[in-house]
């Protein structure tokens, strides 16, 4: 079922509300590409989604900027049991994604959240949901979800 939603948020609490609305859409697992400039809020939205899906609002969800990937266990019956949170910002070549467990992530049927997904070019799956985060001049963010 196609997704086409637009949200406007003022703060991280707003991101948590969006995560609560989006989480059921990803219940069977999904591939999600997060787009936006540096500092747009990709990690903050990913963090909110992971906390919502795991049911743990206090879960430590660090940015995978340096580790490049973090994994989390989802409750039984959700997301194929695993959430993969990738950050491709530091990749020099798309093929480096294979060193991060990319094939296992794709085969596992869980949820894949990918920041800077455009950096893997032709390896980016066509069947995906794209979330674009755009900061506005008034300090709010527009979040467009399509897929």
Please outline what is shown here.
The chain has 147 residues and is an alpha/beta fold. The chain has helices at residues 12-22, 42-54, 102-107; strands at residues 4-9, 30-35, 69-73, 82-87, 111-115, 129-135, 141-146. It has a single domain (4-146), classed as Rossmann fold.
- Rg (CA only): 14 Å
Mean of all residue-level pLDDT scores: 91
Would you count the extended β strands for me?
Answer: 7
Q: How would you spell out the order of helices and strands?
A: EHEHEEHEEE
* Count of the domains: 1
Could you characterize what this model shows?
The protein has 147 residues and is of the alpha/beta class. The longest helix has 13 residues. The protein has one domain: 3-Layer(aba) Sandwich (Rossmann fold), CATH 3.40.50.300. The chain has three helices and seven strands, in the order βαβαββαβββ. A hairpin with an 8-residue loop joins β3 and β4.
What attributes characterize this protein structure?
147 residues; 3 helices; Rossmann fold; alpha/beta
SSE blueprint and pairings:
Blueprint: E1 4-9, H1 12-22, E2 30-35, H2 42-54, E3 69-73, E4 82-87, H3 102-107, E5 111-115, E6 129-135, E7 141-146
Parallel strand pairs: 2-5, 2-6, 4-5
Antiparallel strand pairs: 1-7, 3-4, 6-7
